[in-house]
Amino acid sequence: MVWQAFFDESGERKHSPVLVLGGFLAPYVRWQDFTEQWKLMLGKKPDIEYFKMNDAQKLRGQFRGWSEKDRDERVRAAYRTIEDHVSFQVSCIVDIEALHKIVPKEELGRRKQPNPYYVAFSGIITKITQYQRTIGVSEKIDFIFDERVMEQSKIVDGWDAFKENAPMDTRDLLGSVPVFGDDKQLLPLQAADLLAWWVRKMATEEPDKVPRVSFPWQPNRTIPGLQIHCDEAWLIGARDAIISSRQGGASS
User: Fold this and answer.
1) Where are the domains of the chain?
2) Best mean pLDDT range from 170-174, 201-205, 213-217, 220-224
3) Which residues in the chain belong to E strands, given as ranges?
4) Which CATH architecture has domain 3-251?
5) Which of 109, 41, 114, 49 is nearest to 77 (CA)?
6) pTM of the full structure
7) Residue 101 and which of 39, 79, 149, 219 are 20 to 30 A apart at CA?
């Protein structure tokens, strides 16, 4: 069985205190069914060409001229479509201020800043491969990310090194280089956009509820999964682990 995972980010790095990378996992056949149902959701009257949660919230773009009531009904319909098809959800919250504190730019060069997207990407991939053992998914998962991210060339170029540095117990689950696609063509990326937006909203407005996703409607089911919160303590642990690994490699 072929599995696919679709992810999108939320949070402008110069204006948001956190960056969120979130998305869903499901077998390929479920994503095929999802895509057909998502098209039907988009085609409800008034129809929209694509779904973007930030535009829905601000009633702009495809949602320009909509009432809040109609907007809310469409967002609920979008989430119902997700509920009916996905198997797992995964999100990663990166505290940008903590990241800059733990990895000051002096360590990277005067013009560089630590990259929250790459932290989230690494955390997502690593945790999913570990999580696969728990949920009994032994197949390699194909990862698809939104193409608008600036880091895609860095990720593609560094994928082999990323795999080589991955823990031995998860390395065999890492497949081919991640794919970056257009969310207007790959509709599951629009579902990932919805999740990432809501997780960022909760992480910034309701920090006491960070471990779970809370929507203003009653979900039909709880989508299992995991959430990674890269706060200061997590980042320190990750940094120290990398330093220890490098020192171990240098002494061997």
Assistant:
1) 3-251
2) 220-224
3) 3-10, 18-27, 88-95, 141-146, 179-181, 225-230
4) 2-Layer Sandwich (3.30)
5) 41
6) 0.89
7) 149
